[in-house]
Design goal:
The complex is a heterodimer.
Chain A: H1 6-40, H2 46-50, E1 54-57, E2 66-71, E3 74-80, H3 83-91, E4 112-116, E5 141-143, E6 148-150, E7 156-158, E8 170-174, E9 177-180
Antiparallel strand pairs in A: 1-9, 2-3, 3-4, 5-6, 6-7, 8-9
Chain B: H1 9-17, H2 20-29, E1 32-34, H3 43-62, H4 72-81, H5 86-113, H6 122-144, H7 149-160, H8 169-177, H9 184-215, E2 231-233, H10 234-259, H11 289-297, H12 301-316, H13 318-321, H14 333-354, H15 360-386, H16 397-401, H17 407-415
Antiparallel strand pairs in B: 1-2
Helix pairs in contact in B: 3-5, 3-9, 4-5, 5-6, 5-10, 6-7, 6-9, 11-12, 11-14, 11-15, 14-15
Chain lengths: 181, 416
């Protein structure tokens, strides 16, 4: 090294730095691309994603009754609402709601409300499907875990839940048959 | 550094090539330990023994357990009824978790009372908090494995905490679950992690011990060891003290395992998991209750989650929040009072976490949460400016021997 000129020396060091940086960069990219499959394997597998739709026959569901079906491992609530319940849901003022949404935006057929029965707070299943259940102050559903109250449209009215009960994507195949998912 | 002399030629031969015996002699036998340690210093070694107990019983349980949603609950019941001594092994493992937390919580409060987190032991403390976090993750995932109602809904509620993260929250929860709800993929990965994390804990415990042995134990009066007159060799003095403490601990532990094995559990967990029905009152295991109370005290989902994680995160920075140079509470009259208030506050939070989130309980939770953060974030940094500390003794020997000569202890050490 001592025999070489100073400029030559600097040039070599520059080359060496470039080699070092590019080696680290390639090693980093390599490590990251190898890590991705290991991380992504934890996401839902193809067979889990395939279990996507469920059909429900509503013909035996009388006014005021509700049924719970399993969709993607979660409960889905379907309630055949009474005229009074529909009226309540439609006339409630949405201005002071936490997650304002009109009832008409949440139903396809106003008689049937279809909801994912999972509290948007921390994932418990709210009560209100059975006739003896506590239904909360707004008569819809009540989550016993941390006290969230939902109304007849499944909208959050009181308690810690941040958003309304989710409406799954569904369609009416006939008047009394719906397909969820 | 004492040069170990071994008589046994085999030991000598090995030690010359792999100085494991010198190492043990140095760290476990001669290791100079402050001579004024009280029984609160037993809880470190007890925690180590609890960890080993959990690992041994856990490995044995895993030989009889099936990590599948259709078989998990039944395989645990089979362990309880059919596997030879299965009931005993499972009850030791189940109660062992609770006792591990009891021991570790006492260990932590010992550190808070005697200022064991202060320089130069900051990293020792941080490694300890890291162990606590790993223990919590391991205990949580272990509780899911029997696949009872509390297992399932505990897993649902805790994993849903991550959905509070803005934008990516939902994707993270789906990734944690490996599906759209807590299901078989979740159970499998929890089993895998529950198996491996204890060994990660062992690794961090080793680092914790390396950091401990760098400066040695703190002591009840919190002043530095000045020389050999202030210390005793670890063996036989503290090995025997630790063994006596272990005897007391095992007596209480055995009483729980044999006479009250389900006292700290929850009856709902003997009902198989049902994803369609949430139990009326979900509570986590008792050792999570204070944190659960903080979560519920905040009337906002993200806020609650941040405060809950913050309550542990704040522990990491305690060495820098406490500005006082005096370690032990014995010389800090005001700090000492607040220490007991903090302890009472944590017990109160634990009680509130078990109560329904309504009425007076919510208000009390908020007050107790506010105090918890006040204690660490405001009191710790500001108190040294107000508090007049008591004069510190000149050395550890001074209060212990109260004037008499430390020669006897000194002479004994020299003889060894």
């Amino acid at each position: 090294m001592s025999t070489k000129s100073k400029t030559k020396n600097n040039k070599d060091e520059g080359k060496r730095d470039f080699l070092m940086v590019s080696t680290y960069a390639m090693a980093g990219i390599g490590a990251a691309s190898f890590a991705w499959p290991l991380i992504d394997q934890m996401n839902p597998a193809a067979d889990t994603l395939a279990l996507a739709s469920t059909e429900i026959d509503l013909s035996s569901l009388e006014e005021g009754q509700a049924i719970t079906v399993k969709w993607r491992g979660k409960p889905v609530f379907v309630r055949h609402r009474t005229a009074e319940e529909i009226k309540n849901a439609q006339e409630a003022s949405i201005d002071d709601m936490r997650d304002p949404e009109k009832d008409s935006d949440r139903v396809t057929n106003e008689k049937y409300i279809v909801l994912v029965g999972v509290c948007t707070h921390l994932g418990c299943v709210p009560l209100g499907q059975k006739s003896g259940d506590v239904k909360g102050q707004y008569g819809g559903w009540f989550c016993p875990c941390h006290g969230s109250h939902y109304d007849h449209s499944g909208r959050i009215r009181k308690g810690p839940a941040p958003t309304n009960l989710a409406v799954p994507s569904y369609e009416f195949l006939s008047d009394t048959l719906i397909k969820i998912g | 550094m004492s040069k170990a002399k071994f008589k046994n030629p085999v030991v000598k031969w090995i030690d010359h090539r792999l100085p494991i015996f010198s190492f043990m002699d140095h760290e476990l036998n001669h290791y100079p330990t402050p001579k004024n340690l009280n029984y609160f210093w037993n809880f470190g070694s007890l925690a180590g023994i609890a960890l080993v107990t959990m690992i041994i019983t856990g490995i044995v349980l895993s030989m009889n357990y099936t990590a599948h949603v259709d078989y998990a609950f039944d395989s645990v019941e089979r362990i309880m009824r059919d596997v030879n001594h299965g009931w005993l092994i499972r009850y030791i493992h189940m109660n062992g978790a609770s006792f591990f937390f009891i021991v570790v919580y006492i260990h932590i409060f010992r550190g808070l009372y005697y200022g064991s987190y202060k320089a130069p032991r900051e990293l020792l403390w941080i490694l300890g908090v890291l162990i606590l976090l790993l223990m919590m993750a391991t205990a949580f995932m272990g509780y899911v494995l029997p696949w009872g109602q509390m297992s399932f809904w505990g897993a649902t509620v805790i994993t849903n905490l991550f959905s509070a993260i803005p934008l990516v929250g939902e994707s993270i929860v789906t990734w944690l679950w490996g599906g759209f709800s807590v299901d078989n993929s979740t159970l499998n990965r929890f089993f895998s992690l529950h198996f491996v994390l204890p060994f990660v804990i062992v690794g961090v415990v080793i680092l914790h011990l390396v950091a401990l042995h760098r400066f040695g134990s703190n002591n009840p009066i919190g002043i530095d060891v000045k020389g050999t007159q202030d210390t005793l060799p670890f063996n036989p003095y503290y090995t025997i003290k630790d063994l006596f403490g272990l005897g007391v601990f095992l007596t209480i532990f055995a009483a729980a395992v044999f006479f009250f094995p389900n006292f700290m559990g929850h009856p709902d967990n003997y009902i198989e998991a049902n994803p369609m029905v949430t139990p009326a009152h979900i509570v986590p295991e008792w050792y999570f209750l204070p944190f659960y109370a903080i979560l519920r005290a905040i009337p906002d989902k993200l806020g609650g989650v941040l405060f809950m994680f913050g309550s542990i995160a704040v522990l990491f920075v305690i060495p820098w929040l406490d500005r006082s140079s005096v370690r032990s509470s014995q010389f800090r009259p005001i700090f000492k009072i607040f220490f007991w208030i903090l302890l009472a506050d944590c017990v109160l939070l634990g009680y509130l976490g078990a109560m329904p989130a309504e009425g007076i309980y919510v208000i009390l939770s908020r007050i107790a949460t506010a105090y918890y953060f006040f204690h660490f974030l405001i009191l710790f940094p500001l108190l040294p400016y107000i508090e007049k500390t008591k004069p510190l003794p000149i050395s550890i020997s001074e209060p212990v021997l109260s004037g008499s000569s430390p020669a006897s202890a000194f002479a004994f050490r020299e003889k060894k």
